[in-house]
Specification:
With 166 residues, the chain is mainly α. 72% of the residues lie in helices and 0% in strands. Mean pLDDT is 79; it is low at 19-33 and 102-114.
């Protein structure tokens, strides 16, 4: 006579069926919440990331332009320009990841058609302060990595305005 093993709960077939059903339910739930990259491009967070990247690029361009005009602080201005370029790249990379497609950074459209005021150290400080405030506001509206990235950009930009040029 062959000794039978004692029954230990769930047989193999029941376990496999349970795993397959649970996995299907999880996959179905995940797919129901999916959006296309085009849907995410108009998402408020994508718009905030795009705006922050464009502001970083604008700040870098302004700092480089002022470095030519104001030799007394040219090294500090080049540092600001280089770091704001890095901010623009990091924000653009995160935006691309967020919408799952390659994007390019474009300057934010100007709200006025008037000739811009001449670039001065004070006007750059004010521009950097506005950029820091906008990145800070975007960080508050974000979560996770994006909040940390935007908060980091806001803090660095505030240091540029208040410490490096202040």
């Amino acid at each position: 006579m062959i000794a039978q093993r004692p029954h230990r709960g769930i047989d193999r077939r029941t376990a496999l069926t349970t795993v397959l059903v649970a996995g299907g339910a999880l996959a179905g739930g995940a797919l129901a919440g999916c959006t296309t990259p085009e849907d995410r491009a108009d998402d408020p967070q994508a718009v905030r990331l795009q705006a922050a990247a464009a502001q970083a690029q604008d700040d870098a361009d302004a700092a480089r332009g002022l470095a030519v005009l104001d030799g007394a602080v040219a090294p500090q201005l080049r540092l600001i320009a280089d770091q704001r370029i890095q901010h623009a790249a990091a924000l653009s990379d995160e935006l691309s990841r967020y919408v799952q497609r390659t994007t390019s950074v474009t300057a934010a459209p100007s709200s006025t058609s008037a000739t811009p005021a001449p670039l001065t150290r004070q006007s750059l400080v004010e521009q950097l302060a506005r950029s820091a405030k906008a990145a800070s506001d975007a960080a508050v509206a974000a979560d996770g990595y994006q909040a940390a990235l935007l908060g980091s950009v806001a803090a660095a930009t505030r240091v540029h305005a208040e410490v490096v040029l202040g």
